[in-house]
Amino acid sequence: MIVKEELKKLGLHFVKVELGTVEIMENLSNRQREQLKLGLLNSGLELMEDKRAILIERIINVIIEQIHYTDELPKINFSDYLSEKLGYDYTYLANLFSSTKGITIEHFIISHKIERVKELIIYDELNLSEIAWKLHYSSVAHLSHQFKKITGLTPSFFKSLKHKKRIALDKV
């Protein structure tokens, strides 16, 4: 909504505004670009112009959307899903991501899956078997092993904690 408002203020017509991308009908002048950049910055947003940085943001957004906001993960490998969704070879995406972020896409996905597991444990609506199935773990043992490796705790011990600590999504 903020992006749409800023575009309207500048008299720009958009074709689509989605998380991380905007398609407008006009060519931006340098003055309009600076005004848009400033308007977005005042709202806590950033105009990204570097194509590599934009692609990395798109990778992050696809992963977060799939793990945190979609009830079912894709039936295909995340690598195939990312390639299909973003239209790039996975090797290129993986190399770009790790060289820029200092972490592999796989580790980024695992970190987010563990945060989602924490969230589902806290909600206490699903048992560990259901959580493992929902997040496409091969078994509860695999989920538990990965959970302990990342957090240092077993899922059951985490569940027993009174003050459950989760990490904000932008800090994962």
Number of DSSP helical runs: 9
Strand content: 5-15%
What would the CATH topology of the largest domain be? Arc Repressor Mutant, subunit A
Query: Strand sequence of the main sheet, in spatial order?
Result: 1-2
Biggest beta sheet attributes: 2 strands, antiparallel
Flag low-confidence runs: none
Residue share in helix? 55-70%
CATH homologous superfamily (4th level) name of the largest domain: Homeodomain-like
What would the average pLDDT be, to the nearest integer? 88
Class based on secondary structure composition and strand pairing: mainly alpha
Architecture (CATH level 2) name of the largest domain: Orthogonal Bundle
Describe the structure using short key phrases.
mainly alpha; 5% strand; 2 strands; 172 residues; two-stranded antiparallel sheet; 2 domains
Describe the protein in words.
The chain is mainly alpha-helical. The chain has 2 domains: 2-47, no CATH class; 52-171, Orthogonal Bundle (Arc Repressor Mutant, subunit A), CATH 1.10.10. It is 60% helix and 5% strand. The protein is built from 9 helices and 2 strands; from the N terminus they run H-E-E-H-H-H-H-H-H-H-H. The chain has helices spanning 2-9, 30-42, 51-68, 78-86, 90-101, 105-123, 128-134, 140-151, 155-160; strands at residues 14-18, 21-24. The chain has a two-stranded antiparallel sheet with strand order 1-2. Strand 1 and strand 2 form a beta hairpin. The protein is elongated, with a radius of gyration of 19 Å. The two termini are 26 Å apart.
Topology diagram in text:
Layout: H1 2-9, E1 14-18, E2 21-24, H2 30-42, H3 51-68, H4 78-86, H5 90-101, H6 105-123, H7 128-134, H8 140-151, H9 155-160
Antiparallel strand pairs: 1-2
